[in-house]
Amino acid sequence: MTALNVKNRTLFTHDNLQVMRGINNETIDLIYLDPPFNSKRNYAAPIGSQAAGAAFSDTWSLDDIKKEWVETLETENKALWAAITAAGYISGESMQAYLTYMAIRLIEMKRILKLTGSIYLHCDPTASHYLKLVMDGLFGKNNFRNEIAWKRATAHNDPKRYGNNSDRLLYYSGGEQATWNGSAVAVPKSLEEIEKAYPLRDDRGRYRAADLTGPSHGSSSGESSQSWSGYDINARGRVWSAPLTGTYAKWIEDNLVPNYRSIKGVHERLDVLDSVGLIHHPQKGRSGWPGLKRYAAADTGNPVQSLFTDISGFTNYNKGKEWTGYPTQKPLRLLERIIKASSNEGNMILDPFCGCATTCIAAEKLNRQWIGIDIEEKASDLVIKRLHKEIYNDALLKGGPLPDVIHRKSPPKRTDADAAIRSPNIKQTLYQKQNGRCAAPCEDGKSVGRALPIDIFEVDHISPRSKGGGDVDSNLQLLCPPCNRKKGNKTMTHLMELLGLNV
Ligand SMILES: C[S@@+](CC[C@H](N)C(=O)[O-])C[C@H]1O[C@@H](n2cnc3c(N)ncnc32)[C@H](O)[C@@H]1O
Ligand SMILES: [Zn+2]
């Protein structure tokens, strides 16, 4: 693994594509991105708000799309390009332009994300279904974890349809071993839920009586099938089972019985549990079975579900003191949940469309490192102000050191092994190197390639990526379209044979 070449607390005012192209491979633990949604609106912050002057456009046309991006997609990711063009046929040119813009940036995100990392793409139903195809194409369908629906407004009055009040977050992992801290974000049970799940009560509080028996597998002669405390387990055709592993056994050990988990015999465990009042016995004179007291105090809460209804967004009626006036600002609680669930303390979090830096603030609060990128100058002013107000003031008050934000206006330079990465003007460079000719000797009757205008040529990996060919300048060449079709995913040797040349 390579080291990250950007410092903690760096804020870039620049197009994120060039910034991300300058970040080393597999160095980021978590990426949250909240790009413009292709909502065909121009956003502007209200005059007088902290964010006044901030504006960004959310309309797309094919003119916005660089030729170079299309070429990269066409030559290096044919399936993805096919999906994007299909979206163009179905939804129109603007969607095709938007998806191209997104795909070229997501390629970089995939490259810089660690295999243990995760990425959350915040979008809305205008484009979420097309973006999911792009994400599947890049991160792999096996790394898809959830499509979260976030209820951002209580209600919307939309004519002739149901209220459109939710966003989507497409959550993908970098690989199978991605960080997941479900318990860190579990939602505590409501009083009602607690009363229902734990109907009994003693001096220690609410509990329920859980089964202390398990199925008997055939004839068991061990102590687990022998009577304990006058209860004839054999007659019931079951065996004793008192927890030895798991979260409740740990809770018992931490709170009531030191070294509980090292007691091997099941009768001994039952005796110990009984001695500290952890066994619920049926009332005197009544028949029944003893149960393990499971206390509400040990309840770890309910796992968070993929429908987020408990974090409200900012609406005209609900702004609160967190609101900076930045158009499309997201609530801190949403980012805190994502960061807690999918990263650990000290990890590096990147938000390539950071706006008023909600992600950076949340990361700072949770002792993570962060990098923010936004193309708008106004965004950076706001981030710095906001960090000072919400975080550093706090540090000052507590007498702690005041961390510095590094504000950069130019992209970083990669320092990892294949730092000889493709330069943005690679086509021009190759065209000059090849004297304006195809890299294969395809001109009739001569031993040189066809001479053609630069636009016609296609960038090819000399040694195909499927065979381990690197994505570095030295492995790239220009081929004319017929030669590129012939070569396909194969090697130059294969192309030479097809051209009838011995190599
Ligand atoms: C939807 S907003 C993000 C809001 C953010 N999540 C927050 O809570 O404030 C999208 C942001 O992306 C920025 N942006 C648009 N295109 C960009 C690009 N190519 N590179 C970097 N930032 C870009 C815009 O300036 C805008 O601030
Ligand atoms: Zn050729």
What does this entry look like structurally?
There is one protein chain. With 503 residues, the chain is an alpha/beta fold. 31% of the residues lie in helices and 18% in strands. The protein has 15 helices and 19 strands. It has a 9-stranded mixed sheet with strand order 14-6-7-5-2-15-16-1-17, with helices on both faces. A 4-stranded antiparallel sheet has the order 8-9-13-12. A two-stranded antiparallel ribbon has the order 3-4. α10 (332-342) crosses α11 and α11 packs parallel to α12. Zinc ion binds at residues 438, 440, 442, 449-450, 479-480, 483.
* Helix content class: 25-40%
Supply the number of structural domains. Answer: 3
- What would CATH call the architecture of the largest domain? 3-Layer(aba) Sandwich
What is the mean predicted local confidence, pLDDT?
Answer: 87
In the predicted model, the low-confidence regions spanning at least 5 consecutive residues are none
Protein structure class: alpha/beta
Strand order of the largest sheet: 14-6-7-5-2-15-16-1-17
